Amino acid sequence: MNIKSKEDFWVFYMNHHSKPSTRKWHFIGTLMSIIFFLCSIIFTWWFLFLVPLSAYGFSMYSHLFIEGSFPVTIGYPFWSLYCDFKLFWFMITGKMDREMKRLGKRPVLQLF
Predict the structure, then answer these.
(1) What is the pLDDT of residues 72-108, one digit of tens each?
(2) 3 state SS of 5
């Protein structure tokens, strides 16, 4: 795959996060990692061990059992982290549906 920009990777990333449940699990993992990072600053540095465990744990679950794909973090760790936070920001600001439409993706009907 020939990725030349953040926007190219964003499109690639969103193709691997097409189901709303996958994005929700990523949101939870990112939120938990932010909370654990703040706890490591406020309370004790031991919480730093939970930062990657929560982020990767939730995303691995969503990819393997919901999306049916393998996480793109393995090949692109930094761009994937950037897109995780971008996804988180779009979801927290309510702009995810608009972004999915911009990318030409239709919402996927899911029960869970």
Answers:
(1) 887 888 899 999 999 999 999 999 989 988 988 755 4
(2) coil
Burial readout 75-98 (b: 16 or more C-beta within 10 A, e: otherwise): ebeebbeebbeebbebbeeeebee
Domain boundaries, the chain: 24-102
Residue 76 backbone class (left: φ over 0; alpha: ψ -120 to 50; beta: rest): beta
Gyration radius of the chain's alpha carbons: 14
Confidence of residue 109 (pLDDT cuts 50, 70, 90): very low
Q: HSE-up of 54 (CA within 13 Å, CB side)?
A: 16
Q: Indicate the residue type of 21.
A: S
Nearest partner of 11 among 92, 87, 91, judged by Cα:
87
Amino acid at 45: W
Residue at token pair 């061990």? 49
**DSSP letter, residue 93:** T
